[in-house]
Specification:
Tetracycline Repressor, domain 2; homodimer; 68% helix; TetR_SbtR-like_C (chains A, B); transcription regulation (chains A, B); Arc Repressor Mutant, subunit A; 211 residues; DNA-binding; TetR/AcrR family transcriptional regulator (chains A, B); 10 helices; DNA-binding (chains A, B); mainly alpha
DNA sequence: AACAGAGCGGAACGATCCGTTCCACTGTTA
DNA sequence: TAACAGTGGAACGGATCGTTCCGCTCTGTT
């Protein structure tokens, strides 16, 4: 509990608790099933439906907020990884951080369920820029095989996000396992370029079309 | 069209055509969205809903049939790959074949939406046996890094199946790209065992619980 | 002590969706 | 021409879900 919340008393305190409880519940629920009903979020958070609608005008609002937080988290992971001195380590730290935080599901799997705000567009642009910087550093480290492009990261994250078990901790363990395998695969310099035309920028943009 | 169908005339011929049209449409539709309505299948196949219900008692029946075909296809890919003389090539041919056929989505993503038949259980056991044989051969080839187990294949297939774009051909191209990266990652003998406790047999069985 | 109102739980409502049934219609076969 | 297999698609009934609404509780103020 934050000191801010602790300073409040009685009803106010509970309200502050609910703020975070609802966000966490929404994260868990929509991560497991992006189409989950809003009542499931309320149930998970241990509150009534009113508590939700007091904070968010409608379901779309909540989803948008969640995605916004996901983008922010992605940026935070990138900025933290950029501190790393070693170029290759910075790259792997970044990717591992994003996979661990399950941020991919929060952004991409929720895409198309709401109309994005201009602010989110800017954050997304920042995210691309940061990821590109990290990727370029990985390339200069010389450990990356030829023919790999930044966009490959998106799809690798997508593949990792598909690993999902009932147990959250186990899910993370296994995701790290296959992420490590893929990173080892990306680091086999002697293998030459991976097959097939590499993904192009914007090839995944269709996701953001309203469904 | 089969010769059997060509021999028939008029209404019978159309009926035979519908048989396959419906199955193909169902495959496409449920591959894209396992929870799709049955009317979407009819629309895609260009037939009315009656044509569906004449052939399958209900939705569950159709899903079960689809999954059954998927298992068969999996077995076929395995048996064909076992012809391959080279141990490592047999393994990669098998995995690539399964990814190309998008069989994983047909079986696992549909799991839990119907009650499986005993016959499917037997097919599943045969599938596990065949996959194990191919995996063992890959191990004896010496190109597989230590610490990798058969169950890893399931999860790698799962990761590949997550790559999905509107265009089917492009989807296959990109899946092959990341499958290749992962296979290269699995073949880095010098890297030692990948991190984390390896997946255990039956760790993915929860999928088949009725939802 | 009385009161105003913030915050809340959950029933109720209305819209939508979807699986399944039903019936009229069309060719085909005998 | 009669019987009927095969079909299209409207119609039905149940379930789901987003949202609204009402009555209650607790809190801070007068």
């Amino acid at each position: 509990m934050t000191t801010e919340a602790a300073a409040l008393s009685g009803r106010r305190r509970q309200a502050a608790r609910n703020d975070t409880a609802i966000l966490e519940a929404a994260r868990d629920v929509f991560l497991a099933d992006p189409k989950a009903p809003i009542s499931a979020v309320a149930e998970r958070a241990g509150v009534g439906i009113s508590a939700l609608y007091r904070r968010y005008a409608n379901k779309e609002d909540l989803l948008r907020q969640l995605c916004r937080d996901g983008l922010r988290r992605y940026l935070a992971e990138a900025e933290q990884a950029e501190q790393e001195a070693d170029d290759w380590a910075a790259f792997t730290t970044f990717v591992t951080g994003v996979v661990d935080a399950d941020v991919h599901s929060l952004t991409v799997r929720l895409a198309g369920t709401f109309t994005p705000t201009p602010e989110m567009g800017e954050d997304a642009a920042r995210a691309v820029a940061a990821a590109t910087r990290l990727f370029d550093r990985a390339q200069t480290s010389g450990r990356l095989r030829p023919g790999v492009v930044v966009q490959d990261i998106d799809l690798i994250l997508e593949a990792c996000a598909a690993i999902r078990l009932p147990d959250v901790a186990r899910t993370r363990e296994l995701r790290r396992r296959y992420l490590a395998v893929m990173l080892d695969g990306l680091a086999t310099v002697e293998a030459g370029a991976p097959p097939g035309p590499a993904p192009e920028p914007g090839e995944l943009n269709w996701r953001w079309q309203r469904r």
